[in-house]
Each structure stands twice: as structure tokens, then as C-alpha cells.
Protein: Orotidine 5'-phosphate decarboxylase
Organism: Sedimenticola thiotaurini
Amino acid sequence: MTDTSAEPRIIVALDFPRPEPARELVARLDPSLCRLKVGKEMFTRLGPAFVEELTAAGFQVFLDLKFHDIPNTVAAACAAAADLGVWMVNLHASGGRRMMETARERLAGYSRRPLLIAVTILTSLSDPELAEIGFSGSAADNVQRLARLTDDCGLDGIVCSPLEAALVRPRVRDGFLLVTPGVRPASAARDDQRRVMTPADALDNGADMLVIGRPITAAPDPLQSLRDIRREIAARD
Ligand code: C5P
């Protein structure tokens, strides 16, 4: 069965240029307390074997490759992710309805299909940059429109900032997953993230799951940091 449960809510972003520190970190984490996100850098360096290593260690993996291509190619890539046994995979909503629906239909054939979520508008894009590539309206307008389109195409959710979560939550169906990066525990450094929110505030804004990297991966004791964040969240409930 596809695992749609929110728990564990924390997805640790494994952003490392080399396998050794990633493996060291993973050995110190616990699959009952977090999921893991593998992005373009690690996947391009280490390939599917690394993802298999993580799943063999008991972790659910979010393969964050943000597919964007013609429908047949994206659907085939999603099928490859499903064959790899990942728990979640994503694509760009701006690839359009047919691309999203074809990918969803392709995954529907799997008894344990990965969750399929979309990126709406990259949070790195400013309103003038969006205008330059031909989007009309603000980033917030486009996020809401693409979130509704993603919902309409029957996908499982979107990746969005905690600020966007508050805008999107009332406009999508119950159970539509909002996965938010840009989260920092009250005590942590902000690193290069600009518009950050605490885990509790992100959940209050409607987020279901939190992608957290450096506050855990760069902590002297990553497991302790993960436990502290979980405690911070639990205190809110
Ligand atoms: O270390 P940090 O917690 O900032 O890592 C956040 C993770 O979420 C990184 O893998 C980053 O690429 C990803 N991400 C993000 N902001 C977005 C989309 C993805 O920080 N808008």
C-alpha cells in the first residue's frame, strides 16, 4: 500500500557532495523518526544504487528530481522511480495537465505506488523573473493557480514554502499534501534561507510534512537535533 500517513512528518534533505558524510549521517538517523530526501546532486553522483541502499536501511525516500518533460518521458521516469521503490517523487506543475495526468495514470498501476507531488513555482523566482519567462501575475497568484491545477489532475500534493501553505490550504481538497522546505527550528541558524518559519508555525499554516536539511545534517548530534525538532512539534499538538 502507498503510505500516505503524515508520520514521520520530517523529511531530512540529504544534500552532500560525497557519499561518506551522507552514509555517516544516515547511520545515525532512525527510519521511525524521519524520512529522507535525495535530490539532483546526490542522485547524479551516486545513482539509483544509493537510493536502494537507503530503502534497504528501512528509510522511505522522497526522490526530489522535479521532472519536467513531455508527458510520455515524465511518466516513464515516474515509473522508474516506482520500480526503484521510492515513497515520493515530484515533477513541475508547469509541465501542464496532460503531463501530470499521464504520470498519475502510469503510477496508478502500481500496488505500492510512490506519492506524486508537484513543484508549483520555484521559490527562488522573483515576480520580475516570472514576468521575464512569460508568467503573468505574482508568484503567489501562480502558486495558487498551479496548486489547484495539480489538485484537479489528481496528484497527491505540492511542495511549497510555509508562507504559501497558508494561501494554498483553503483552496485544495482535504488530504492534499503540502510539503514545505524553508523550515528552521526557533534556535537554529537560517543559513541561506530567507523566508523561514519554525516547524510548528509551518504546520499551523497547513503544512503536512517538513523538509529540513542543515539544522539536522550539519548539527553536531543529528539524531538529537531531529528529536528536539520532533519535541518542538509535539509541544504544539
Ligand atoms: O538545509 P535546508 O533545510 O535549507 O534544506 C532544504 C532543502 O529543501 C534543500 O534540499 C533544498 O534544495 C530544498 N528546497 C528549498 N526551497 C525550495 C525547494 C526546495 O530549500 N523552495
In short: Residues 40-56 form the longest helix (17 residues). The first strand starts at residue 10 and ends at 14.
